[in-house]
Amino acid sequence: MSAASTSVARVGITRQPKIVLFGPGQRRQLPHLVRDIARHLLVITDERMATTPEFQEVVAAVEQAGVRTSVFAEARPDLPREDILAVVERFGDVGVDAVLGIGGGSCMDLAKVVSVVLTNGGDVRDYYGEFLVPGPGLPVFTVPTTAGTGAEVTCVSVVYDAERGMKVGVADPHLEAHAAVIDPELTLTCPPGLTAATAADAMTHLVETFTDRVKERTPEDLASKLYVGKNPLTDTFCRSGLALLSTSLEAVVAQPGDLEARSATMLAAYNAGMAINTAGTAAAHAIQSPIGALTHTAHGFGVGALLPYVMRFNLPTRTPEFAEIGRILGVADGTGSELDAAKAGIERVEQLLDTVGCPLDLKSLGLTPDQFDFVASQAMLATRLTDNNPRELTHAAVVSILEHGYANDRSWWTE
Q1: Of 193, 335, 355, 358, which residue is the least packed, with the fewest Cβ within 10 Å?
Q2: In this structure, are 160 and 245 located in the same domain?
Q3: Is 62:27 a contact under the CB 8 Å cutoff?
Q4: Residue 386's domain spans which residues?
Q5: pLDDT at 64 over 80
Q6: How far apart are the C-alpha atoms of 154 and 14, rounded to whole Å?
Q7: Which of 131, 153, 182 is the last residue of a domain?
Q8: Would you tell me the crossing angle of helices 81-91 and 105-120 to the nearest 10 degrees?
Q9: Tens digits of per-residue pLDDT, 171-190?
Q10: Which residues form the Alcohol dehydrogenase iron-type/glycerol dehydrogenase GldA domain (predicted)?
């Protein structure tokens, strides 16, 4: 552990589901969990997942346990606000008393935010921000089918508000799931592109939270702010997740049907979700949001493509942490300088992203130089994320990151 990590981390906090089940086949435990607290379960998924035998098996098993089910199978990527309105209108008066989100991050985010809107009323816009949900929602069960978002254990739902032209977070402990059931068997049929995008997301979560800003937090802060910054508890999850990804990503690419590798990657994504839930993500996520809105590219690819340049920008303020990443990823043995170890860690992260097929430059995403100023302005509005970055972000700094990323300039910055 680096000196920087031990000397500055004073406050640690975790928020997590009441129950977390992890392991192949654990989806079969769902009926036993649901029947104890629900009589009418609303199941939220997407169109593709709804046609799979695994989904139909889950729904049938819950019904056999004596629980009525209603299904919304129209969840879309990036969680449009309209999906929330549709679910509330359709199921607001049918007496559901629990919600299951099964699928990718948007499916689970939709389940979480719908649970509090159904219970507390109003429009989801009333809850944009931190700690603005007035009370608990319906019990939520989350079942991820990808390894990357960590949404199964986070108390955040990210909503795309088309009228505002941006993604907005609903961040509140009341969104925390009652139970998360993490079954790696559900990722075996995940397409290569989706595997790559979610893996890049998980890697970015781990790197950003491990190198986050450390914040002094008062009791009042802890009662009103979701993110407390880098701390001893989130560091533990980051170290575990990075160690798992150091070998499992390459194994998943080589053998997509390797259940052991899929399990390790999914466990890493869980660790990443636990880390971001209280430390929070930073520059890469803040900058990706407007890029994604402009280019309609996958979130995971966007943050992955930004990460090489964000890491280089942050290196001067987080050299010990990047050096430790180098040691965790097996490319630094402590014999060289700390800076050399840090650079090796950054390059190994890039190598792993490249291995899974993540683009490593912004031009590949379709971003153009005339959009840099807009992206920087929008990114700076995401203060919940920019405040986590270890090196101060300015409009000019974001533009510089974009310029390096567009040019695929991975030289070491001197400024």
Answers
A1: 335
A2: no
A3: no
A4: 191-406
A5: yes
A6: 10
A7: 182
A8: 50
A9: 999 999 999 999 999 999 88
A10: 17-184
